[in-house]
Amino acid sequence: MADHCPPDTKDYPATERTRVRRSPERGSHAHADVHAIMDAAPLCHVGYVINGAPYVTPTLHWREGDYVYWHGSAASRFLRAAEDMPVCLTCSIMDGYVLARSAFNHSVNYRSAMVFGTARLVDDVEEKTDALRRFVDDLFPGRWDSLRPMTRQEVKATSVLRMKIDEASAKIRNGPPGDSDEADHPVWAGVLPIESRLVPPQPAPGLPDGIELPQSLAELIQSGRLR
Amino acid sequence: MADHCPPDTKDYPATERTRVRRSPERGSHAHADVHAIMDAAPLCHVGYVINGAPYVTPTLHWREGDYVYWHGSAASRFLRAAEDMPVCLTCSIMDGYVLARSAFNHSVNYRSAMVFGTARLVDDVEEKTDALRRFVDDLFPGRWDSLRPMTRQEVKATSVLRMKIDEASAKIRNGPPGDSDEADHPVWAGVLPIESRLVPPQPAPGLPDGIELPQSLAELIQSGRLR
């Protein structure tokens, strides 16, 4: 999405809750770092509070500049609970296990972004439909126009939440274990990388003959990216 | 871990907060379903409340029966914030995109488990060390004994949280899009499956000659599982 935009060199504020204290060298508040993780993660975990207790639900998200969106059934109590409430939305990608010579130095290679804001319902029907179109087309370029159009009833049955990112931090670890000073301990050390990818598609049963996989989906699968 | 135990046929209670209301046919409270997802997921997202606001942090977890564990630096404000507090811990695995003929019927194949309880610090040094040993050996069988032993200072610098699962639900979607009645709309429909796997290991720079990858790690990589 950012391809046609000038580079965003801004930072989110390093506030009391987003300042990275453990291993600060792994942390960043740069828009570019936070957004890159959000855009690469296939899903996010949304945290909110109901009656003082925490709830964490997985969902797909999409982003436009400093705004993050997610959606669900208009009847979902989780979406209703998040409306006009403080939300923490976290995207995490695990890139591998880091095996060191001691238990203590074992780690994980990962990328995670934690963003905070207040979720607002997108009520305007046109704005909501536009947001859903961007959701679909960001994942699968050009798909929206090829679909059976959304009915008024379907739009009504779908809630979209939109949240301005007020505060955010990214945290990244990569590379080998950091215990080369213990290399004489005779145990295998290194990284077991994890790779997540799209594998060959499964056409729906009964898909009529002659309907081929669109080029854009074939390219996505080829790309090695999840989105 | 459950290999040597009799099958667990119990259910977690379906409470106000864990009853699956949206698509209840996808939901379960069975220990077996909840635990299978927790044991397959490489990481979890822990949600808790600080000053009324939600926080969601990714971490690795491990499980023993109805108890889930996670750990971190003893100096971590997140671990301290979760201690003796209500926590929601969610494990999610995304198995694929489900592409339908309409935007509305698009979906995701996934497995997720949401568990609730109150986190307790494991203070006893021996109990804490045992828990960490199970963490390492559950991921990488036999590794603990091959490592440089943990020092007293390292145990002290590590906090372990342990939570009895009081309430839990699992939710699973799999299979093709559910819109075969719209199969005449001429667009590709089906599933784009996602596969996450361990790829060839990267030995640490300076790993002495003659230290081979242990058989148990080779088997894990071969297995196609992440843990």
UniProtKB/TrEMBL annotation, chains A, B:
Pfam families in alphabetical order: Pyridox_ox_2 (PF12900)
Chain positions covered by the region annotation Disordered: 1-29
Superkingdom, natural source: Bacteria
Gene3D superfamilies: Electron Transport, Fmn-binding Protein, Chain A (2.30.110.10)
Annotated protein name in UniProt: Pyridoxamine 5'-phosphate oxidase family protein
Organism: Rhizobium lusitanum
